[in-house]
Amino acid sequence: MAAPPTEIAQRVPSAPETAANVIVFQDVSIAFEDKPVLDGISFRLAKGETKAIFGVAGSGKSTILKMALGLLKPDSGQIYVLDNDVTQMSEDALFELRRRVGIVFQESALFDSLTVRENVAFRLLEEGHVSDDEVEKRVREALSFVELENTIDKFPAELSGGMRRRVAIARAIITQPEILLYDSPTGGLDPVTSTTIIQLIVKQRDVYKTSSLLVTHRLQDAFIMATHYFDRQANEMRPLPPGMRGEVPMAFLILRDGKVIFDGDAHELAQSKDEYIREYIS
Amino acid sequence: MELISPTEFAKETVKTVEDYSLLAGQSIANLFRHPRYFADTLQQADLIGVGSLPIVVLTGFFTGAVLALNSSTTLQRFGSLSLLGQLVSVGMVRELGPVLTGLMVAGRNSSGMASELGSMVVTEQIDAMRALGTDPAKKLITPRVISTVFMLFFLTIISDLLGMVGGGAVARFLLGINSHQYWSTAWQILTFQDVFMGLVKPLLFGFIISTVGCYYGISARGGTQGVGRATTQAVVASSVFILLVDFFATKLLMAIFGYQ
Fold first, then answer.
1. pLDDT tens digits, residue range A196-227?
2. What pLDDT is recorded for position A246?
3. What sign for the dihedral angle of Cα A42, A47, A52, A58?
4. Phi and psi at residue A13, in whole multiples of 5°?
5. Which secondary-structure segment (H or E) carries A190?
6. Angle at alpha carbon of residue A24, lines to A215 and A11, rounded to 5°
7. Which residues from chain A sit within 8 angstroms of residue B124, using beta carbons?
8. How many domains, in total, are found in chain B?
9. Is residue A182 less than 8 Å (CB to CB) from chain B?
């Protein structure tokens, strides 16, 4: 058996103070049309860690991802991404930073007038200094990662919802970003396709050690991620051996009424005495 | 329909003007910034210019023809039917060619831009583009502005020419005016000022059509219904804006050239 991934030392909040944090939210608040959505939230994402964000619809989960990319500005507070304060950066400076971060949108957000090849290659083509052969090679590699090489010449409208989500993952990972943000990657998908997507996220976490924020409604997805690792030799996701639960860099963050009510690992979540959390996970 | 207070309405109007001005200013500033999207600009020029050619040809031809037909009765009354060529050429080159071409292209392309960009907004494609490190203003808006300004200039010239051809056809086949007489008076009356006025306007109108279309597209909210609303607003706003600017541009240019 291939060794399960271990990035435990960097896990937050039990991580040592020296652990590198790739994303830091400090007392961040935002309101839409005078209605507060996030009210002074703070959390950290350690390097190599995947943090699943939960909350009811409208609790500001997707807003957190958009703020981390600087697509939305908070009303107050600081957000540091790869040591850059995105709340103080100009749009031009943000474009540079965003090249180091990948995002998978809730509805994939593929460019519908471009083929799968052009969608996945978009970032490389925009950078402009990559040769055509290199672009083709990397597009095929990214599509092979999500097992969709055969769709390279298709348009997004010709793909199923799950395939579009996988193309969006390929587009996000083609430049091997340091951080990946997933916005409900399994939302609206059938259980089999959802498991395929979760396997890809676990693969990205364990093979490439990419730090990630994962917004989801589906607690079972996050629990699968916390209890499985990616076996590179078998090229599939496998359950952690007995006694090794909690041995993957996986954390949970729960939002309620604009506040963070839980930030910890699967073990701490299972031990929580908070009634709302108990009800949420039951 | 939801009623809003006059204060809210005033605030929204000021905000709209501010946002539009920023977008329009940015689209010009981006001309001098990298990266430049030549392929996108050429593609848009093809869509806007070549795509609009049939409606511009038809509009120009029949506007010139109907202008000749309507004017002929009045000119005949004063025994000045020989001036028909002058009337059609000045009318087309100074006013009708630029304005009608502008309105036709606004109807076709301003709505197209608003719906295309609006759909991209509501399906998060604009956010995705920003997230992928690309400035949508540079990639989507500036190429459309350059293409529309450039192509409307040439479409207007075609429309002017076709208008004169239409007027000439009516003069020759319906009114029995000698073609040589029509064309020689039509050419002779045109001065540099007339041509200049007629060719400055499409540059202004092209800028209005593209920036208004892009502005309403990029500000679309509320799903497919919002995209539909943005499309309608883009056509209405750009058409009204063209007519307003036409009046002030004409007044200004007449003052500059010393027309009484």
1. 889 999 999 999 899 999 998 888 888 889 88
2. 61
3. positive
4. -90, -5
5. none
6. 75
7. 105-107, 109
8. 1
9. no
pLDDT at A17 over 60: no
Residue A242 contacts B where some CB pair is shorter than 8 Å: no
d(CA B253, CA B260): 11
Do B81 and B167 contact (CB within 8 A), yes or no? no
In a domain, B29, yes or no: no
CATH class of A8-88+213-281: alpha beta
Nearest to residue A31, comparing CAs of A40, A22, A23?
A40
> Of A97, A122, A164, A215, which to mutate for an interface test with B (greatest number of B Cβ within 10 Å)?
A122
Task: Please indicate, yes or no, if residue B3 is contained in any of the structural domains.
Answer: no
Per-residue pLDDT tens for B173-216? 999 999 999 999 999 999 999 999 999 999 999 999 999 999 99
Q: Tell whether B227 is covered by a domain.
A: yes
pLDDT at B96 over 60: yes
B93 belongs to a structural domain:
yes
* Residues 6 or more apart whose Cβ sits within 8 Å of residue B227: B114, B115, B118, B119, B122, B220
pTM: 0.86
Which of B23, B121, B129, B132 is the mutation pick for testing A, counting most A CBs within 10 A?
B132
B127 touches A at CB < 8 Å: yes
Mapped onto helix, strand or coil, the DSSP state of residue B250 is: helix
Domain span including residue B107: 36-257
Instruction: Write down the residue that tokens 């039917």 correspond to.
Output: B81
Q: Which chain A residues touch B130 with a CB distance below 8 Å? A: 69, 71, 95, 98
CA distance B194 to A74: 54
Query: Is the Cβ–Cβ distance between B20 and B122 less than 8 Å?
Result: no
